[in-house]
Amino acid sequence: MVDALRLTCPIRGPLNTPAKSTDGLTPSEEARRIDAINFLLARGYPDTHIKVEATIKRFGHGGKSSFRADLAALDVPLSSIAPGSVEELLEHAVLLGEVKREHKQAARARETQVQPMLDFAHNPDCVALYWDDVAQRIYWRETKGRRRIAHESPASTLPRYGQRIAARPLTAADIKPSESLLDMLIRIEAVLHAAAIDAEARYVLILQLLLAKLYDEHSHEARPTAPLAIQDFKALGTRPSVAYADVKKTVGRAIDYYGKYLPREVPGTLEVAPETLVEIAALLAPVKIIASRQDVVQTFYMYFAKHLYKWDLAQFFTPVTVTDFIARVLNPQFDDHVRDPACGSADFLTSAYRLGAQTNPSYHDCVWGSDNSANAVQVAVLNMLLNGDGKSNITLEDSLLNVDRYADRYDIIICNPPFGARISESRRPVLANFDLGHEWGPDEQGQLQPTSQVRERQQVGILFAELCVRQAKPGGRIGIILPNGYLGNRGTIYHALREWLLRQCRVASICSFPRFTFKTSGADVSASVVFLEKRRRPLKASAADTGYQLHVGLIESVGWQLGDKGAKPIYVREPADGSYLTDGEGNRILDADFDGLLAEIRDSDAARRFRWIAGGPSRGARRGWSVSAARVVEDPTRCLDPKRLSRKATRLRDEIAAKPHRRLGDLVEVLPELTGRWKTSVTYRYVELGDITDGGYVWTTLRGWELPDRARHGAVKGDLFVGNVWGSVQKWMLAGGDTSDLIVTNGCHRLRVRKGMKRYLIDVVAALATEAYATQMRAFARGSDGLAEVSADEAMEVLIPELTDRGARARLRPFVTQLERGYTTMRSIMDDLIEQGLDVPVPARRPSHSVLV
Predict the structure, then answer these.
(1) Among 346, 341, 316, which residue's Cα sits nearest to residue 522?
(2) What percent of the chain has pLDDT over 70?
(3) CA-based Rg of the chain, rounded to a whole angstrom?
(4) Which of 128-132, 239-243, 572-576, 790-794 has the lowest mean pLDDT?
(5) Collapsing DSSP states into helix, strand and coil, what is residue 772?
(6) CA angle 112, 116, 120 (to 5 degrees)
(7) Do residues 640 and 530 touch, judged by C-beta distance below 8 A?
(8) Which is nearest to 93 in space by CA: 134, 59, 136, 140?
(9) In this structure, are strands 626-628 and 13-18 parallel, antiparallel, or unpaired?
(10) 437 CB contacts (<8 Å, ≥6 apart)?
(11) 187, 194, 452, 778 — which has fewest CB within 10 A?
């Protein structure tokens, strides 16, 4: 099957064209041609004068074979020349174009297609245009006396329609962003490799040239029509020695300017032959790096920095879709100062900078970051420079040690701190300076309070949560990524974190990411971004302010393949034929929820309280889900887990509660593990978690000495076992038949129908076989990863619909009897009954195993 792209050509209208790339990701040659046509239209070429697939030479027997240009622009309307007349088309052709999907075909295309096009043209002023993913160039010939001189130049120097072409220096107004800086870099690498420059020296040289290019672009922002220092010297006819001297001078100025921001020294000498430098400059000169899209810069920089710094930077970068979403919610304004105290590679700061720079050209003065790793600072500074920040405020600093230095200073704090139980802080002076660096316990009124006792160690992520709040101004806003264990776990350190946050801040929004979102950085945890507004005066107890709404959102699709360290992008496809949908520029659209969720946040009750969440109701957007802060403080542990607070879980339980129902705890009781000293020589039937299905189970026969440590439950006939781990809550079994030798793994709650409730066994079993039950259990699970657990007491809060349909009960009874005897499963019969109209809730199934609820 060949994938297709949905494209719109300004000449031919909507197209459904095959995507010719082998990787299934690169835009097709047709998309490149649309780019070239749009370029010509922007230069004033009339659309009525442009022909696609123009025959410019017929040859062979009867003229059956032909030579074609991918596009042709004429000095008269197409309608004025005879259809199919090659000679008439060539008389009026002022431009002939050749388009290739990839740059690797460029050299051959110039020889076999671009130059022959100029040979065939009748108009001596005709221009040939070459267009691919890296290079866009124009070619023409000039007559001087008896000589016919060939010229070439970046396509950006093509004059407006009707004007005569001539070689001229590039200006800031001429250069344009590239859709693939990485492809340009790979091409530069190939030039340096051919020049026998070793790998290490290549990347030092590229760094020098990048700094020179960035300096050149920044220094010409206020002079857009002045010639740049980095030029296509070959097109201008500049001698290589002169070009070398000019570039070396610019490199020196760039190092003087940027060197004070970079922790590592950059050499000022250029170890490259002038002729090679001229070849590289031809690739660099037409590109405007500081205007390139953030995802284009990130892809380029991850590859470049990996080779320059000998790091695999995938583990340090946060995807642009994530950082951009968080920055857009925080909504930096003209004079808002933004800080990331654990900036890493500065991905959050680049997003904040790009947004702020839309309204403030000097926003680089408002962006601040620090990290305690010199390597990270080096990476972050160059990342900021590549994203357009001409003045970097990134410093090498231990933020935890210097928390008070920046107290109450910043309008916005944005952070993805290092987190995890193994990443801890043990320095006593640091811990003593944090409320959450102390032990917490109940006071005389039962309120959780910090004590005078300093902890031996504390998780770094928890300390950074406190740091972010302390460094924000009163009324300032914070966006911080935290693992869901921080938001839901019952342990005192997590309860204390939530209580502290609620006293210091109002929660504006919590948006959860699906599991494996941060797999590329080696983090197998479920996490959420929490948006906070710092109170002007802290509360003495979180329950003192519950009169506001907070938004809760679940992100299901992030735009890349979850669980894959390669993070392969996923694009929106037309359901009918599987073709890829494209935006107005012909780019595929990532299949991600961020734009829709941002619209929901802006159109939520929370946004009415937190006015800094910009925008109003979005036409066509679903209204954002909000819950009262009172619901949070009603929970004794102040649970902020978004699964539990979500629209899906809340509405499901409301729907069940509106009809006859029971609490699971009203119908069954939780039994302790029935463990014993398994006899080593006796044979047992052992049931693993993976062996449990929808009511039924299979077993493995093992001797007592072979049983694993997780063999915890001895079974009694009639016992129900339900999965209590997030990833297995849909698993349940009824121990039937002879259970004297049946042993069940841990990871389950062991239940038994209460005395006098046997008639409700059908209701319980029917509920266990539905997605409604599994959804509630997943919502109750507390923890950061696939091992998040549902406690026994919370499992008892699951709502069980009563089966009031007598016919359904009659059909289910034989199956329950079979389960009691140790046979069959329930899922198939419940699905069948629901399909036939059984009145029970049917929540949407999760689109993938990584979606939290």
Answers:
(1) 316
(2) 93
(3) 33
(4) 572-576
(5) helix
(6) 155
(7) yes
(8) 140
(9) unpaired
(10) 425, 430, 431, 454, 455, 458, 463
(11) 452
Greatest C-alpha distance within the chain: 111
The amino acid that residue 790 corresponds to is V
Lowest mean pLDDT among 57-61, 108-112, 324-328, 485-489: 57-61
pLDDT (0 to 100) of residue 62: 59
Q: Which residue spans within 513-618 are E strands per DSSP?
A: 527-534, 549-554, 580-581
Q: What is the pLDDT of residues 305-323, one digit of tens each?
A: 777 776 655 556 678 889 9
Q: How many angstroms separate the CA atoms of 573 and 337, rounded?
A: 40
Query: CA separation (Å) from 247 to 215, 251, 581, 807?
Result: 11, 6, 43, 86
What pairing do the DSSP bridges indicate for beta strands 549-554 and 626-628? antiparallel
Name the β-bridge partners of 71: 52, 97
Cβ atoms < 10 Å from Cβ of 118: 17
Task: Annotate 652-675 with b (16+ C-beta within 10 A) or e (fewer).
Answer: bbebbeeeebbebbebbebeeeee
Q: Give the pLDDT confidence score for residue 22 in this predicted structure.
A: 43
How far is residue 791's CA from residue 812's CA, in Å, rounded to a whole number? 29
Q: At 61, is the pLDDT very low, low, confident or very high (cuts 50, 70, 90)?
A: low
pLDDT in tens, 545-590: 999 999 999 999 888 877 666 667 888 888 877 778 877 666 778 8
Task: Indicate the SS3 state at residue 472.
Answer: strand
Smallest Cα–Cα separation from 364: which of 353, 379, 355?
353
Exposed/middle/buried for 133, CB within 10 Å: 0-12, 13-18, 19+? buried
Q: Does residue 489 surpass a pLDDT of 50?
A: yes
Gap between the Cα atoms of 672 and 376, Å rounded: 50
696: left (phi over 0), alpha (psi -120 to 50) or beta: beta
What mean pLDDT do residues 613-642 have?
Answer: 84
**CA distance linking residue 206 with residue 212, whole number of Å:** 10
Q: Would you call 158 helix, strand, or coil by DSSP?
A: coil
Instruction: Check if the beta carbon of residue 530 is closer than 8 Å to that of residue 470.
Output: no
Judge whether 88 and 71 are in contact, CB under 8 Å: no
Rounded to whole angstroms, the Cα distance separating 441 from 492 reads 8
Query: pLDDT tens digits for 721-749?
Result: 999 999 899 999 999 988 999 999 999 99
Q: Which two tokens mark 749?
A: 């709650």
Q: Grade residue 266 by pLDDT with cuts at 50, 70 and 90.
A: confident
475 backbone φψ class: left, alpha, beta (φ>0; ψ -120 to 50)? left
Q: Render 786-835 in DSSP notation, one character per residue.
A: TT-B--HHHHTT-EEE----HHHHHHHHHHHHHHHTT---SHHHHHHHHH
Helix (H, G, I), strand (E, B) or coil at 768: helix
Length reported for the chain: 853
Q: Give the model's pLDDT for residue 183.
A: 87
Enter the tokens of residue 852: 């939290």
Q: With beta carbons less than 8 A apart as the criterion, state whether 504 and 538 touch.
A: yes
Partners of residue 397 on adjacent β-strands: none
Model pTM? 0.83
Classify residue 456 as exposed, middle or buried by CB count within 10 Å of its CB (0-12, 13-18, 19+): exposed
Q: Whole-angstrom Cα distance, residue 468 to residue 637?
A: 22
Averaged pLDDT for residues 801-830: 84
Structure tokens at 469: 């709040």
- What integer pLDDT is reported at residue 509 of this predicted model? 98
- DSSP percent split of the chain into helix, strand, coil, nearest 5: 40, 25, 40
CA dist list (Å): 843 to 574, 594, 649, 772, 847? 25, 22, 9, 6, 12
